[in-house]
Write a structure and sequence with these properties.
homodimer, about 650 residues, alpha/beta, 7-stranded mixed β-sheet, 5-stranded parallel β-sheet, about 40% helix, elongated
């Protein structure tokens, strides 16, 4: 009884703070927050093992608030407990900090946003359905650390309609990531009205049971029920053979304040008289429940901080050719042509041997992306996670692994990376240094047709790569290696870089360019493949090879352009501007995507400097279709070597007119 | 017995054709195809009601092959039956057509791709997990037509791991779209290996039963079991009170050819001796099963073609102000400021009244996007589909509604549209004229923070808008109305246009620009807000209003730029080039996204023409955070009116240096 009274008292205190800080902000979700008052109280004051002075410490239990909009209740607790906040120099959070909710200079953002200075949350959430996958990644990281940390994830009932939740549940079951404790908050209301019967507590419990969970269907405002459900989870969290626990909690939106329950007040700050009334009602509720805070009744347990020591030895990485011999298939070490996807697999495996932080994920296409070279290496056992055909979960799971201290490489077809663009955007809000690798990009895969081709991906990622992190460096790099050597070196560069990257590989074997030996491949770099003077051809990935063929055609016409392999976005703008100047101010860009990529980037460089440049852009300008051979598809899209040569000559002619 | 023998004979014939045509193509998925030999035979020769001479006719039963890679089996049947193929002039498909599988000039693409001339498939598939949602949209369209057509959807077992499948199942249950017959093809193998136990036939059946389906767990190679399961579906397809049927079929990858079953041959064409052997084994299987084709034993039933006559009266659409009065909330008709999202809702409702093809979908945010104005109108009952928090299903479902003859408007926050970018790309492969509306775009929503802000969306959609359809017109338009009048007119324009569009609305009320009355808003258009001479400021959406404020600041400094509201991508390039020339060749673009939008588009226009232009681009260059007011957020991102004015003056100065 003492326990219940203490939890009620604290829950009511937090619900009041949540009301007050959202009122101060003029927006927010106080009724959603109130529905979590007891769950968050038991978790943050009594159950989770963490250090309020180091909420981001490895080895701690973590709370992923997948229904991010309910965050005011966590902010209330953090302010009351005095959890550390702040970027750089940190301080103990106060009620005053909480009252600055949603201010432009506040660490307390509208939705969970650790990068702005609230490290208690392991990742940004608020675009719904992603938290459970993040928690799964955190749990895998903890297991790799030989830790026993538990990852609590609170998911809304309406949110459970997102397919990614099912993807995450399946992933947790298959990988026995039982350190994750899924808690479904069934308050019965979404934004526009009542939740579907399909997401009722009973229905959710039945589905979870059928899937394989041992479900605790509890009253989410009953302290002892909450505690016993969480204790049940504690007992199975580090086992591999028990049935995993999931908690389905019936809760009340606007708990404790009847005036907030008579209609759906989703996402509305309560102000003025309505606020006064709601606060009074919470006091009434406290009296009714005989709520009484007792110092010492609830106590935050200490985490068992433990972390395997890890030695990173990138200096031991083999050279490109050595790596092919050691980690590639037969014959690769002497190959003249090799697919960039194969070199990626070799590099990933090589990294695995020298960098224990490197882990890999794939979506049932590891024999296409060549992540299988990593997966099948017995020395790397336990560090590959087969995510099956569920890319959204894969990408959010990678965020969890990153936050858990690992360097995750997540690969699938570039086309299917698209499936996770929202998850990737959220990863960028978290500043998660995940390494994304899309294979079969562009049109060179040919025969399978457009449903397997990544085409707007460069435009999407370029826009993100145009943002800067706090240090002024690019937040994200887009990498398009033209040959296997570049793919190998850039994969290593991705691992060294403490930030997100997207690399684009292609299906066909392509020549390893002869002048690669002396070239250093690095983020932000480019390579001059051929120095000419008549024009500048800038290409990336597979199209560099078409451009090389075009050079031969052009040579017959006495035209000698410079060819640049612009494998990185962003790139050295001054250097490219200089090359444009040195080549008659004529620039032809060649890409196998829908545009918005390197051609646009160069146009921006040119216009920013008001350079006298004439530019043309070759890219995919209609929806492609299947062709049996890459050449057929390129010709149909006017992207063949002949097309490149012709465009280059027309560019020069246009300039003379 | 006769029936079974006939089905076996035909199934074996089709499996052989599938082997041969993938061998001819040199790639493809013959073993997946063979696992569907019986299911497809029973469906296409005996059960589905369609006309091989008009496979795309409204009122027909449809087959959505969600596991698109298995398409060779359908091509085999289509060639055998002589189903019409071809763009423009059509012809009956022959075996020779099938043998041209995956050729660049073939209608028979690597994955289902109706736009290339194979109209039997209602939509492009192959990026997995999307078909069931498309089938659901088709079923809703049929119901709106008062038709009884049934939509068969074949889903792979590995594919079922995609969360969108669960989203679609929930949607089917909630909307009682029982015209959909989900058929799970459990052949036990994915690309890299065995399917997870979680997707075993028993596990799938149990999950479906728990969700509310009446499951038929059958041997997918037993003709009579298949027939009776499909007959069971026929009995409930048009009811609203029965339990819906789902079929889970145990099948064999590489059925009929033991040599193809001894290892996982996913996605490999079988050639040479292996092909000879596999074909011989199929003959052996035929003998063992006493397979015998009997003319007349299987017969394709005729569809009950019926379609409600529909009168479209766009000429009766009210004017902007009339519409606000008739369909808006109190006071909107006289408002000076109004959010573009509100005008969207008004326009959608107005369209509903004059265009019975217009239907609407939303993802539990109809009170934010204002699609609720349509949803709540009793005259439009039955034409709004609440998709809840499951955006992937929503977008694919819209594709189905489009293919069923409707004009679907699908809305949610622009941020959450991102969730469906892969589905949208597939919709573009289908050339589906879906209308996508993202609200709360950019940073002006402020308080909720970056998890709710659409930021790379313009770059993504611009790259698609750079592609052309067969007629040479833009495949897709991106629309960014700056005020309520523009949003109203552009919503109407979207409905008139027979192609996909993405419109971006914003949260705050914004001024209705005074000079809007005489302006026509159209796809591809722009409006000159203020004519000056010193520089050209080009803005879109919310940022037009910041730019207007900047004009006032600049006027105090004696600087008079021209301001263009560039609300459409693509746009009239010549007109914009002319404006740049007329304004000293100084261009400043102003956007509330991550770039790659109108600023990049203008840079391309300029460099293509080698115009002497100096351009600067203002856009979001770091991950935003919450602020209580749009002005706070814009100032923090250096995008305020002051920033615009300062950049404009610096642009002029830079040019003088």
């Amino acid at each position: 009884m003492l326990y219940a009274r203490a939890v009620h008292a604290k829950a009511i205190q937090l619900a009041k703070i949540a009301l007050e800080i959202t009122a101060a902000a003029g927006s927010g979700h106080p009724t959603s927050a109130a529905s979590l008052a007891h769950l968050v109280t038991v978790l943050m004051y009594d159950h989770m093992r963490y250090d309020p002075d180091a909420p981001d410490a490895r080895g701690s239990d973590r709370l992923v608030l997948s229904e991010g909009h309910a965050c005011p209740i966590v902010y209330a607790a953090a302010a009351d407990i005095g959890i550390r906040i702040g970027q750089g120099p940190s301080r103990r959070m106060t009620l005053e900090d909480a009252t600055r909710l949603r201010q432009i200079d506040s660490e307390v953002d509208g939705h969970p946003n650790p990068a702005e200075g609230f490290p208690f949350f392991p990742a940004a959430t608020g675009s719904l359905g992603q938290g459970l996958s993040i928690a799964a990644g955190l749990a895998l990281a903890s297991r790799l650390d030989c830790g026993d940390a538990r990852m609590f994830c609170i998911i809304g009932d309406g949110e459970s309609r997102e397919g990614q939740i099912q993807e995450a549940l399946d992933f947790i079951l298959e990988h026995r990531a039982y350190g994750v404790c899924p808690i479904f908050n069934c308050n019965g209301y979404g934004q526009t009205g009542e939740i579907s019967d399909l997401q009722s507590p009973d229905s959710m419990a039945a589905r979870l049971e059928t899937s394989g969970f041992d479900v605790r269907l509890i009253d989410g405002h009953d302290p002892t029920s909450i505690r016993s459900a969480l204790d049940a989870h504690a007992r199975v969290a580090t086992t591999l053979d028990a049935r995993p626990i999931a908690i389905v909690a019936r809760t009340v939106k606007g708990w404790g304040s009847p005036s907030l329950q008579d209609r759906n007040l989703h996402g509305k700050a309560i102000t003025g008289d309505a606020l006064t009334r709601a606060l009074e009602e919470l006091d009434d509720t406290a009296r009714r429940l005989d709520a009484r805070w007792a110092v010492g009744e609830l106590r935050i347990p200490t985490p068992r901080t433990k972390q395997a020591p890890r030695t990173v030895r990138h200096e031991d990485l083999p050279s490109f050719r050595e790596a092919l011999e050691r980690y590639g298939d037969d014959g690769w070490d002497n190959a003249d042509t090799l697919a960039t996807r194969k070199a990626y697999g070799v590099a990933l495996r090589a990294l695995g041997h020298v960098d224990p932080r490197v882990v890999a994920l794939d979506g049932d296409v590891g024999n296409s992306t060549y992540s299988e070279l990593f997966a099948d290496d017995p020395d790397l056992e336990g560090r590959f996670f087969e995510c099956r055909i569920a890319e959204q979960n894969m990408m959010s799971c990678a965020v969890g692994l990153w936050k858990g201290g690992y360097v995750p490489f997540a690969s699938t077809f570039g086309k299917f990376v698209t499936r996770a663009y929202d998850q990737i955007e959220m990863a960028m809000v978290s500043r998660a240094a995940i390494k994304m690798v899309g294979s079969h990009c562009g049109v060179s895969l040919a025969a399978d047709g457009p449903s397997q081709m990544a085409l707007p991906d460069v435009a999407f990622f370029r826009s993100i790569s145009a943002t800067r992190n706090r240090a002024g460096a690019p937040l994200c790099y887009v990498l398009q290696p033209a040959d296997a050597r570049a793919a190998y070196e850039l994969t290593l560069a991705m691992a060294r870089h403490d930030g997100p990257c997207y690399m684009r590989t292609v299906r066909p074997d392509v020549p390893i360019l002869p002048n690669g030996d002396g070239v250093r491949f690095e983020l932000g770099g480019h390579r001059v493949v051929r120095t000419g003077e008549d024009a500048l051809i800038v290409a990336s990935g597979y199209m560099v090879h078409e451009a090389v063929k075009a050079l031969e055609i052009l040579a017959k016409h006495g035209v000698r352009p410079t060819l640049v392999d612009l494998y990185s976005l962003p790139f050295d703008e001054e250097a490219i501007a200089e090359l444009a100047r040195d080549n008659n101010g004529l620039v032809l860009s060649v890409e196998d995507n829908y545009g918005g990529g390197i051609g646009s980037a160069i146009a921006e460089v040119v216009t920013e400097r008001a350079l006298p440049v004439r530019a043309r852009r070759l890219h995919v300008r209609r929806v492609p279709k299947s062709g049996r051979d890459p050449d057929d598809v390129l010709a149909a899209l006017s992207l063949s070597a002949d097309d490149i040569a012709r465009e280059c000559m027309e560019l020069a002619k246009a300039d003379q007119r």
